[in-house]
Amino acid sequence: MNTAIIATLLLVLLGLAYQTGWSRSRRLAPAGETKLHSRPVYHGALAAIWTLVPALLIFALWALFGETASRAYLLAQLPPDVLALGSAELESTLRRIRQIESGFGVVGDALPWENQAAQALREFSTLTYAAVIAAAAGTGALALWLANRRISLRLRARNEVERVVSAAMITCSVVAILTTAGIVASLLFEALRFFSFVSPIDFFFGTVWNPGFSTTGQGAAGEYGLLPLLWGTLMVASIAILVALPIGLMTAIYLTQYASQRTRSTVKPVIEILAGIPTIVYGFFALVTVGPFLAGVGDTLGIDIRATSALTAGIVMGIMIIPFISSLSDDIIRQVPRAMRDGSLGLGATQSETIKRVILPAALPGIVGAFLLAVSRAIGETMIVVLAAGNSPFLRLNPGEPVSTVTVTIVNQLTGDTDFASPQSLVAFALGLTLFIMTLILNVAALYIVRRYREQYE
Amino acid sequence: MNENTQLEAREMHMPTEKIVARSDLYEMESSTVRTPDAEQRPVRVTARNVSVFYGPKQSLFDVSIDIPEKAVTAFIGPSGCGKSTFLRCFNRMNDTIEGCRVTGKISLDGGDIYDPALDVVELRARVGMVFQKPNPFPKSIYENVAYGPRIHGLARSKADMDAIVESSLQKASLWNEVKDRLHEPGTGLSGGQQQRLCIARAIAVSPEVILMDEPCSALDPIATARIEELIDELKQNYTIVIVTHSMQQAARVSQRTAFFHLGNLVEEGPTDLIFTSPGEKRTQDYITGRYG
Ligand SMILES: Nc1ncnc2c1ncn2[C@@H]1O[C@H](COP(=O)(O)OP(=O)(O)OP(=O)(O)O)[C@@H](O)[C@H]1O
Ligand SMILES: [Mg+2]
Fold first, then answer.
1. Which fold has domain A222-453?
2. Integer Cα distance of A201 and A213 in angstroms
């Protein structure tokens, strides 16, 4: 109900403001006689902005501080002996009172002083609510009046609306940037806590991963060498790229250079279905189909390939990345001007000579960019490896053996009972940070290369 | 095909072909009185009843024409009349356009170029093409010119290749401007230089016929004049077909002119005749700028 009332109020203010702004500016300039600087729609929009922004600000303040205020009021209502309780008990009392107030009821009988406090809280809430609505409506009305007074022939409503719009856009992008910064900061902060237990040198250059179990107060038990995990990650990602790059690239070349329009319009969506499959499903596929199949192949050949291994995870991950590479390369190859292709064909080159000597070299920077993006995707992929890589954090060369990766280890360290003060779980943040920096570098490199390539042809 | 068989083919086929061509022309233009062609050159390329369809839409209707050897033939006509479409038939570049279909017969030295047994790649080496917009590859100047010879294996050694590159650039009158920067990118040249580079690139595979689709339309008047001079020199050795929107250019560089309108060949003849006393009202109107 609360939100409905607020929304109605805001809508009414909006409609009213827009309408008055619009009609007032219309009246100033009867058709064809004098000229308004801005069309009435802009005056309407400007008035609406002027009215809504202060009202919204009041609601925002309420959302930010309302809770604190009501808590302070409630504390003031409690008898002194309750206030003297420990913080945990006090919190549960407060929760009880709020439940009585909202009418949900509580376990056991409500004590008289609890009922009293709840009653007082209820009155306080109703009062503040009414006050906030009144304040918002009042400020809105005042702002509307001011906005209306400003309307004149020469008021540059159009330019002002433009400024407000651009400010709104900037705010949105700032939100996105701040979120990223926030994520990095929290990662960094927790990672630093981890490094207070384990030295960065042991972490980055250690070759043994054996974190032990988290028992509070035990300190830095276990070994936290990153290298086995990094090695596993790189091995799985390389296998994935070895699978995905040739297949994806050939697909893109076929689709852009050889396929007829009809083939293209059926093949492309089918390939893109691959991109829509949830990674956990790829995980099943690896575990149930590819793993046993590879193990069987290994048996026939006399090689020891385990069902869950770097190979299984890498191949399935490669399949997952195919559409990624093929659609990116498709776009890039398509951007090579047709004139290049015609020039080569016109000299008597065959289709494949043209592709090899003209189209691919011209598209190469873009393809490298696509490749780097795919690598960063492979490094960050989690589900397939969790299910199919075998989770065995040892430095091993043979891709037929199980491995563990950075992402899998993060999952392991953060699932189950976690105590966020122990290095066993804090290490997840250090791992996350490592992963983040790796993919960041790859993405920046990819973007840089792709951008340079764009400049070449436009 | 080597020199001998080419010559044989010409001797064997040309006389009959020529008779057909003449009678065709006279049938087509029976209403107009024509003075005979001043320069009787052997015919290199003949097209008979060529029609082109893009999907279901027909864009060229039953065009027949003879292209004389070592001369410049100009195609003129309003935009969209099918000049480029027809030009692309001669080296089968239409094959690369999806949904494009060509009917009729085109022969080069008497051999049908749409014969399924014919190797398109070889044909395109014999019939080179220069496009409307200069389209050098994003490679060095040297590599641009060496591209064709390399593909066709025309050079045995590095020295051979150097010689081909130099002579091609010289024939395209670009050598003096680029001889000190052969290994800089071809895309770094000026528009006119790029177009001459593209001509050099086409010449490097020693084609017999060179097709040029509005080769000067992206160039300024000075660069245009250079290219026109070049075309004039090239016609000593090559058979040239050029599409142009400029009447002056057609009049300056060509010996024969063909006027197209709405996918039809309206008339064709010696350039001076077409420009001084065209046989058709449509031609007259176009040349004098009444439409186009
Ligand atoms: N790739 C294509 N697909 C479909 N239709 C085409 C294609 N190329 C040309 N056409 C059509 O064929 C007709 C002739 O086009 P063409 O390019 O040969 O004209 P043009 O005489 O060269 O014109 P311009 O002087 O503008 O270059 C036009 O109606 C055009 O729309
Ligand atoms: Mg054209």
1. MetI-like fold (1.10.3720)
2. 22
